């Protein structure tokens, strides 16, 4: 049985502002008009307008008369980090929201970053930290980065873990992003959603390995769907990844997940490995077949592919990149199915 419905409002990595990271989610047995969760909010009104024109029945049995009606269903937001391509729609729509404040769930630092936009200079101050303030459009709701699942919508909870997303240009200080385990509470089924993320192999303090260690015991029965970025195609030099993944690095990350899965299945009670194996992605070539089919039954949706601005590729970038990742994953015999996320896609069997 499907437990979630997810609509891809936007899944590009820029610079096309009409297709930026933005996903609407609800429990499968509820109506969209009963309340939706916005997972990221890069594109908004304009993208919804376009996908409604292409697929008028996308939100069936609800029959929205306008993009504004779809936006009115959003009761809360979950944001991975404060970069504009993940919050643009949230900012632009905030002044039009009616009714009680919408909760914006994110790590404390991400909320502080978002607050700088609502400064009354760049944009009116429409947010509040005060739960008693009913006049604001948005209520900043910090998520702790730990092992606890916290409710973010009807029947939906998230667990947030920190990710590395490169460095800030001026200070060279690390810039953080977030991964979310998104759980359908009644069934306890989950999917895993990554914000922008750099390869662990290029990180001074690898963090994605902890996400894989937390995910491994759940695969594939409790968790069979992963959304993860792959911003660039093959051949992008490491020095020009700017805190993002390329197909080679994503395949290595998935091999690291496969290694965790094998370790869990080998452990006596199927218990999670005590500690994630840091830097484990370094030894990918030494597979010896032990990782074979470790990720069978797992779907990996490729998101956040950057546009091809040079006209080098004949096909859209997300299909080029997904094909490259599938080939590498097949070479490693991991067994995972790689899918290019598409704007307007309705994913109904999202465990
Ligand atoms: Zn980013
Ligand atoms: Zn981004």
UniProtKB/TrEMBL annotation:
<dbReference type="InterPro" id="IPR036866">
    <property type="entry name" value="RibonucZ/Hydroxyglut_hydro"/>
</dbReference>
<dbReference type="GO" id="GO:0004115">
    <property type="term" value="F:3',5'-cyclic-AMP phosphodiesterase activity"/>
</dbReference>
<dbReference type="GO" id="GO:1902660">
    <property type="term" value="P:negative regulation of glucose mediated signaling pathway"/>
</dbReference>
<dbReference type="InterPro" id="IPR000396">
    <property type="entry name" value="Pdiesterase2"/>
</dbReference>
<dbReference type="GO" id="GO:0006198">
    <property type="term" value="P:cAMP catabolic process"/>
</dbReference>
<protein>
    <recommendedName>
        <fullName>Cyclic-AMP phosphodiesterase</fullName>
    </recommendedName>
</protein>
<dbReference type="GO" id="GO:0047555">
    <property type="term" value="F:3',5'-cyclic-GMP phosphodiesterase activity"/>
</dbReference>
<dbReference type="Pfam" id="PF02112">
    <property type="entry name" value="PDEase_II"/>
</dbReference>
């Amino acid at each position: 049985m499907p437990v979630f419905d997810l609509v891809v409002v936007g899944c590009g990595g820029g610079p096309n502002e009409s297709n930026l990271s933005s996903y609407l989610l609800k429990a499968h047995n509820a109506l969209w008009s009963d309340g939706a969760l916005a997972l990221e909010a890069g594109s908004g009104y304009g993208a919804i307008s376009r996908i409604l024109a292409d697929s008028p029945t996308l939100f069936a049995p609800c029959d929205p008369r306008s993009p504004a009606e779809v936006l009115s269903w959003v009761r809360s937001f979950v944001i991975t980090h404060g970069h504009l391509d993940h919050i643009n729609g949230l900012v632009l729509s905030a002044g039009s929201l009616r009714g009680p404040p919408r909760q914006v769930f994110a790590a404390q630092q991400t909320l502080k970053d978002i607050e700088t936009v609502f400064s009354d200079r760049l944009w009116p101050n429409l947010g509040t930290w005060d739960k008693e303030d009913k006049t604001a459009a948005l209520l900043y709701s910090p998520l702790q980065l730990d092992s606890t699942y916290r409710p973010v919508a009807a029947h939906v909870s998230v667990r947030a873990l920190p990710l590395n997303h490169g460095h800030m240009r001026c200070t060279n200080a690390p810039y953080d992003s977030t991964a979310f385990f998104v759980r359908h509470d009644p069934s306890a089924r989950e999917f895993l959603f990554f914000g922008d993320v750099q390869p662990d192999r290029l990180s001074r303090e690898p963090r994605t390995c902890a996400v894989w260690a937390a995910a491994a015991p759940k695969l594939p029965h409790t968790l069979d769907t992963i959304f993860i970025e792959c911003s660039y195609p093959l051949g992008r030099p490491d020095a020009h990844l700017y805190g993002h993944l390329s197909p080679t690095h994503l395949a290595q990350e998935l091999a690291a997940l496969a290694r965790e899965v094998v370790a869990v299945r080998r452990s006596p009670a199927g218990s999670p490995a005590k500690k994630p194996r840091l830097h484990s992605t370094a030894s990918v070539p030494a597979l010896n077949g032990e990782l074979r089919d470790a990720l069978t039954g797992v779907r990996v949706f490729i998101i956040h592919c950057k546009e091809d601005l040079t006209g080098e590729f004949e096909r859209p970038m997300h299909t080029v990149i997904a094909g490259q990742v599938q080939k590498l994953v097949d070479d490693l015999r991991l067994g995972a199915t790689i899918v290019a996320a598409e704007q307007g896609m309705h994913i109904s069997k999202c465990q």
